[in-house]
Amino acid sequence: MRGFYEQQAKHYLVEFDHSTLEHNSYLEIQVRIGDDYYTVNTWYAPPYREADWDVLVVLAVSVSLVLIVIVVLWAMRSPRIERKCGQCHRWIPRAWNPCRHCALTGHPARLVVVEGESKLVGQIYFVRRDSTTVGRSANNGLVLDVPGVSHRHAGIHEHNGRFKLVDYGSLNGTHVDGARISAYYLRDGDHVMFGPVRMQFRLETG
Ligand SMILES: [Zn+2]
User: Are 160 and 185 in contact (CB under 8 A)?
Assistant: First the structure.
């Protein structure tokens, strides 16, 4: 039977401009032979197709918008619900006082802000066992980003359980209970001033 059809086959070329056809168009071609009509059905489904730039542009714009929203939300969250820890420099919830990351290291000595910038009052900082530098620069162990505090203001060094406070030549000085000091061994309850920031030194014993 196959040979019969091949023998009878007549080939005609029907040309379409492909730009007038949608991808996967359903084509119905009528062939008239004498008074009879025959219908031939086929799909226009080219194997290769150029990238659909409209879709790509819409996709790129959508992804960009989502990224912008994420960045804006990230930038907005920090001052309202989080703050940067002045000691470990991590973003932590505002309610954490003292910082729970810093508390894990179990320091016996603390400094509590009693006077200075309103956002700092009540803030609890730990004094590290070896040494803690205090100042405005971000590389200090305890960052006090407050006008009047020197970039590298003072340091607290621990020797055999005693905490020695040393002024590093700060502009506005370091004061303990009203007196300007260059070096001083801190006692529990002392009030220390680094420039305009007053802090109380607390030492847990036992
Ligand atoms: Zn911390």
Answer: no
